[in-house]
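Input record, target 12 of the design panel.
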């Protein structure tokens, strides 16, 4: 069995858990508050900025010219998306490159970013790519799931979880090409390296669930501090 098939088989429970999460259900039924949406929007755009560095690492670690070209294409799309996103944001949100870099990073966002960044030191496409590809895959699958639901058709909810299109879907889409690269690199990897790549993918899927959960609960460092000092885990339960 190709490594990507093994990965996707084990990732299914994480996808189902995300589909059931009240944040995702809140997008479908338009029941999220403006504060929940703002938290998610601010943390997500900062997370997308962090992915610029991950994609750069993939370019540097590429083992073929074709891989480097593919990652360059994905980087161009990432930067274009960030530029357009920033142009839409109000002044109270990150609205240019400088304010984006100064966005406060909340706990789960930081843990997720550090999880991904830790793979860079391996200088291995097989280890870096799963940390990034997991989020791409999960959002594409959630987009398919949400599209099949009787969702509320109004903004801002209509635009959430709509990642897809020809650039990502189909045999020549980014996500399938990413899985092809993982399978190609796995052929020359040890069983331990393959297992590590799989676990990295699954951990990213898990952290995606916690990202939704943090947005739903609007968790901040102050909440973590209060829970620690109270000693009972209060606001994090």
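The sequence produced for target 12 reads:
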């Amino acid at each position: 069995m190709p490594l990507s098939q093994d990965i996707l088989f084990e990732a299914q429970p994480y996808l189902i858990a995300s589909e059931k999460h009240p944040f995702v259900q809140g997008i479908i039924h338009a029941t999220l508050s403006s504060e929940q949406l703002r938290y998610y929007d601010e943390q997500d755009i900062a997370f997308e900025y962090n992915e610029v560095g991950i994609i750069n690492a993939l370019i540097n670690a590429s083992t073929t010219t074709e891989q480097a070209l593919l990652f360059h294409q994905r980087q161009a799309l990432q930067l274009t998306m960030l530029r357009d996103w920033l142009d839409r944001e109000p002044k109270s949100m990150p609205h240019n490159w400088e304010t984006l870099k100064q966005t406060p990073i909340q706990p789960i966002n930081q843990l997720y970013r550090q999880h991904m960044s830790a793979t860079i030191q391996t200088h291995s496409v097989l280890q870096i790519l799963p940390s990034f590809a997991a989020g791409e895959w999960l959002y594409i699958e959630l987009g398919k799931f949400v599209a099949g639901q009787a969702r509320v058709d109004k903004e801002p909810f209509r635009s959430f979880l709509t990642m897809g299109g020809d650039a990502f879907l189909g045999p020549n889409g980014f996500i399938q090409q990413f899985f092809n690269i993982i399978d190609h690199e796995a052929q020359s990897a040890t069983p331990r390296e393959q297992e590590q790549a799989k676990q990295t993918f699954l951990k990213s899927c898990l952290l995606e669930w916690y990202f939704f959960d943090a947005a739903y609960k609007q968790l901040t460092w102050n909440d973590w501090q209060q829970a620690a000092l109270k000693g009972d885990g209060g606001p994090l339960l």
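The chain has one domain: 3-230.
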